[in-house]
Amino acid sequence: MIVGSCGKAHGLRGEVAVYSEVPEVFVSGAELLTNRGGALTVSTVRPHKGHLVVGFAEVADRTTAEAMRNLQLTLDDTHAPELPDDEYWASSLVGLQVQHPDGSQLGIVAGVVTTGAQDRLIVDTGHSQIEVPFVTELVPEVLETHIVVDPPEGLFD
User: Fold this and answer.
1) Which of 14, 42, 71, 124 is packed most tightly, with the most Cβ within 10 A?
2) Using one digit for the tens of pLDDT, what is the confidence trace for 88-134?
Protein backbone atom coordinates (compact mmCIF):
# COMPACT_ATOMS: atom_id res chain seq x y z
CA MET A 1 0.00 0.00 0.00
CA ILE A 2 1.19 3.52 -0.77
CA VAL A 3 1.94 5.43 2.43
CA GLY A 4 3.56 8.54 1.00
CA SER A 5 5.06 10.33 -1.95
CA CYS A 6 8.27 12.31 -2.10
CA GLY A 7 8.33 15.96 -3.02
CA LYS A 8 11.26 18.36 -3.21
CA ALA A 9 14.61 17.92 -1.54
CA HIS A 10 14.83 19.77 1.77
CA GLY A 11 18.16 21.25 2.77
CA LEU A 12 21.60 19.96 1.87
CA ARG A 13 21.80 16.73 3.91
CA GLY A 14 19.56 14.53 1.76
CA GLU A 15 16.24 15.11 3.48
CA VAL A 16 13.10 15.12 1.39
CA ALA A 17 9.56 16.46 1.76
CA VAL A 18 7.12 13.55 2.11
CA TYR A 19 3.35 13.88 1.73
CA SER A 20 1.43 11.23 3.65
CA GLU A 21 -1.96 10.63 5.16
CA VAL A 22 -0.43 8.11 7.57
CA PRO A 23 2.50 9.96 9.16
CA GLU A 24 2.58 7.44 12.00
CA VAL A 25 4.36 4.89 9.77
CA PHE A 26 7.32 7.26 9.37
CA VAL A 27 9.38 6.40 12.44
CA SER A 28 13.13 5.94 12.78
CA GLY A 29 14.08 2.47 11.58
CA ALA A 30 10.95 1.89 9.47
CA GLU A 31 11.73 0.20 6.16
CA LEU A 32 9.67 1.36 3.21
CA LEU A 33 9.61 -0.02 -0.31
CA THR A 34 9.64 2.22 -3.38
CA ASN A 35 7.89 2.09 -6.73
CA ARG A 36 11.35 2.01 -8.33
CA GLY A 37 12.22 -1.35 -6.83
CA GLY A 38 14.30 -0.39 -3.83
CA ALA A 39 13.96 -0.02 -0.09
CA LEU A 40 14.62 2.97 2.16
CA THR A 41 15.14 3.12 5.91
CA VAL A 42 13.76 6.13 7.78
CA SER A 43 16.49 7.74 9.89
CA THR A 44 14.89 11.07 10.84
CA VAL A 45 11.42 12.57 10.56
CA ARG A 46 9.80 15.83 11.59
CA PRO A 47 6.66 17.74 10.63
CA HIS A 48 7.08 20.87 8.52
CA LYS A 49 4.35 23.11 7.04
CA GLY A 50 1.74 20.41 6.40
CA HIS A 51 4.09 17.63 5.34
CA LEU A 52 6.96 15.62 6.75
CA VAL A 53 10.68 16.17 6.27
CA VAL A 54 12.24 12.72 6.20
CA GLY A 55 15.86 11.61 6.19
CA PHE A 56 16.64 8.15 4.84
CA ALA A 57 19.76 6.20 5.75
CA GLU A 58 20.45 5.52 2.06
CA VAL A 59 20.27 9.21 1.02
CA ALA A 60 23.23 11.36 2.07
CA ASP A 61 23.05 14.45 -0.14
CA ARG A 62 20.71 16.89 -1.86
CA THR A 63 21.43 15.53 -5.36
CA THR A 64 20.21 12.07 -4.38
CA ALA A 65 17.21 13.57 -2.57
CA GLU A 66 16.27 15.60 -5.66
CA ALA A 67 16.16 12.39 -7.71
CA MET A 68 13.50 11.07 -5.32
CA ARG A 69 10.85 13.55 -6.43
CA ASN A 70 7.56 11.74 -7.24
CA LEU A 71 8.86 8.52 -5.68
CA GLN A 72 6.02 6.51 -4.13
CA LEU A 73 6.72 4.95 -0.73
CA THR A 74 4.91 1.76 0.16
CA LEU A 75 4.48 -0.49 3.15
CA ASP A 76 3.77 -4.19 3.13
CA ASP A 77 0.03 -4.68 3.79
CA THR A 78 0.78 -6.86 6.82
CA HIS A 79 2.39 -3.85 8.57
CA ALA A 80 -0.32 -1.36 7.73
CA PRO A 81 -2.13 0.44 10.53
CA GLU A 82 -5.90 0.10 10.77
CA LEU A 83 -7.94 2.87 9.19
CA PRO A 84 -11.33 4.28 10.26
CA ASP A 85 -14.36 2.83 8.43
CA ASP A 86 -14.62 5.72 5.94
CA GLU A 87 -10.93 5.77 4.94
CA TYR A 88 -9.13 3.54 2.43
CA TRP A 89 -5.62 2.71 1.35
CA ALA A 90 -5.19 3.96 -2.22
CA SER A 91 -3.65 0.64 -3.24
CA SER A 92 -6.78 -1.23 -2.11
CA LEU A 93 -8.94 0.80 -4.52
CA VAL A 94 -6.86 0.28 -7.67
CA GLY A 95 -8.40 -2.42 -9.85
CA LEU A 96 -11.91 -2.17 -8.42
CA GLN A 97 -14.84 -1.96 -10.82
CA VAL A 98 -16.61 1.40 -10.95
CA GLN A 99 -20.38 1.27 -11.25
CA HIS A 100 -23.11 3.86 -11.72
CA PRO A 101 -25.87 3.74 -9.05
CA ASP A 102 -28.09 2.09 -11.72
CA GLY A 103 -25.60 -0.82 -11.90
CA SER A 104 -24.05 0.01 -15.27
CA GLN A 105 -20.27 -0.30 -15.56
CA LEU A 106 -18.31 2.96 -15.83
CA GLY A 107 -14.77 1.56 -15.76
CA ILE A 108 -12.00 0.42 -13.44
CA VAL A 109 -10.02 2.40 -10.86
CA ALA A 110 -6.61 2.84 -12.50
CA GLY A 111 -5.12 5.01 -9.78
CA VAL A 112 -5.66 7.47 -6.98
CA VAL A 113 -4.27 11.00 -6.95
CA THR A 114 -3.68 12.10 -3.38
CA THR A 115 -3.24 15.78 -2.68
CA GLY A 116 -3.61 17.94 0.36
CA ALA A 117 -6.84 19.44 -0.94
CA GLN A 118 -8.82 16.50 -2.33
CA ASP A 119 -8.14 12.94 -3.45
CA ARG A 120 -9.29 11.89 -6.91
CA LEU A 121 -9.97 8.48 -8.42
CA ILE A 122 -8.55 7.86 -11.89
CA VAL A 123 -11.22 5.82 -13.68
CA ASP A 124 -10.18 4.00 -16.86
CA THR A 125 -13.26 3.73 -19.09
CA GLY A 126 -11.49 1.77 -21.80
CA HIS A 127 -11.46 4.88 -24.01
CA SER A 128 -10.12 7.51 -21.65
CA GLN A 129 -9.14 8.16 -18.07
CA ILE A 130 -11.41 10.39 -16.02
CA GLU A 131 -10.60 11.98 -12.67
CA VAL A 132 -13.44 11.75 -10.17
CA PRO A 133 -13.21 13.71 -6.90
CA PHE A 134 -13.24 11.15 -4.07
CA VAL A 135 -16.02 12.80 -2.06
CA THR A 136 -19.17 11.25 -0.59
CA GLU A 137 -21.45 13.21 -2.95
CA LEU A 138 -19.86 11.54 -6.00
CA VAL A 139 -18.63 8.27 -4.42
CA PRO A 140 -21.43 7.19 -2.08
CA GLU A 141 -20.26 3.57 -1.64
CA VAL A 142 -16.96 1.72 -1.53
CA LEU A 143 -17.45 -2.04 -1.37
CA GLU A 144 -14.96 -4.92 -1.48
CA THR A 145 -15.69 -5.69 -5.13
CA HIS A 146 -16.61 -2.32 -6.60
CA ILE A 147 -17.07 1.40 -6.09
CA VAL A 148 -20.31 3.24 -6.80
CA VAL A 149 -19.81 6.59 -8.54
CA ASP A 150 -22.74 8.96 -9.03
CA PRO A 151 -21.20 11.36 -11.58
CA PRO A 152 -22.56 14.73 -12.58
CA GLU A 153 -24.14 14.74 -16.01
CA GLY A 154 -21.56 14.72 -18.79
CA LEU A 155 -18.54 13.54 -16.77
CA PHE A 156 -18.43 10.12 -18.44
CA ASP A 157 -19.70 11.19 -21.89
Assistant:
1) 14
2) 777 778 899 999 999 999 999 998 887 667 889 999 999 999 999 99
- Which of residues 79 and 138 earns the better pLDDT score? 138
CA distance 77 to 90: 12
- On whether both 102 and 64 belong to a single domain, the answer is no
Same-domain pairing of 67 and 19: yes
SS3 sequence of 35-54:
CCCCEEEEEEEEEECCEEEE
Number of C-alpha atoms within 13 angstroms, CB side, residue 131?
Answer: 8
Mean pLDDT of the chain: 89
Which SS3 state, helix, strand or coil, does residue 113 take? Answer: strand
The CATH number of the domain holding residue 63 is 2.40.30.60
115: which residues sit within 8 A by CB, 6+ positions away? none
| Domain co-membership, 101 together with 128 | yes
